[in-house]
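stuck on this chain:
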Amino acid sequence: MSFTIGNSVRFTVFGESHGAAIGGVLDGLPSGFEINTAEIAKWMDRRRPGQSEITTRRSESDTVKIISGLTDGYTNGGPVAFYIENTDTMSEHYSDLEYKPRPGHADLTMYEKFGKHRPFAGGGFSSGRLTAPLVAAGSICMQVLFSHGVSIVSYIDRIGDVFMENTPDCDQDRPYSFKTRIPDTALDARAHAAIIRAMGEGDSLGSSIQTIVTGINPGVGEPFFDSVESGIAKMMFSIPGIKGIEFGKGFGFSASSGSSVKDEMYVEDGSIRFSANNNGGVLGGISNGMPITFRVAVKPTSSIRKEENTLDLRSMTNSTIIIQGRHDPCIGIRALPVVQTSTAIVLLDLMFAGGYLERIHS
């Protein structure tokens, strides 16, 4: 098992969906950086459940309690450790599911790997609940990156068959003023209506999230195995529900000719420029100074209110289930800040690895 990610900046997550608390340890931050706890709370609130009619009704305050790593509000060089209490679990909704794995969830694979002692209520440590510590740690890393001129903007560009074709003009905050996080008034309304319809049918919808990173130095990334793409992809696939990723034009390259996707270089005012950014700001696993762009696919919520076929692990016979409990009809809405902030963990790690940041903040 591995609950730690990173090299120069390392993040460890702990806890279970229905345990007493979840939390994390963020190690490798520069000493002397002032942490804005209000910023942490802002990002936690953006992921927090129970905020609207199109998110889960589970209600958690998600208050982050930092227990080490700060002196008078400044990082002191030690690991920043924190925890978040679980206060609204309702484990009784899972009492009938201990030996009936839910289709699309990790129930069966968790049982096959860990046996009868695995934590099953709420998905245990495979639950999306474990993304709350990711947001807490990522929001801290975002603050460090922002102080060095790096900006990370993420927004939802698809929910079901509602798709935003054009890149919107928005900062890191604007998408959160829309209920579905699609930063377009008309598309937001259409996506919201689609989610409401799916909920009424006991169903759920998939989505995709676009991310644009600006301000990253050329030269960031450690080929072969710690490239920008491999680092971000590893983090993204650690987020429950994410099933695909593409950088720049991504899978569109497969339907293109070489002459149509050239990112040609030229010099202007003594600086290297690119005619296009089909490669998403990364060449050979190394940033080239253009915006780093990537898009992830988020699957529809597997917990739906329809009868589904499964099996009974005790009797090894076929069975059926109807899942109870409180679940997001579209995971992407609350996954958005997870993608955005966890990207910061990866990039901060790579910038330290490449020698672009100092260990004592000034």
Q: What stands out?
A: The first helix runs from residue 37 to 47. The chain has a mean pLDDT of 93. The first strand starts at residue 4 and ends at 5. Residues 4-353 form a domain with the Chorismate synthase, AroC fold fold (CATH 3.60.150.10).
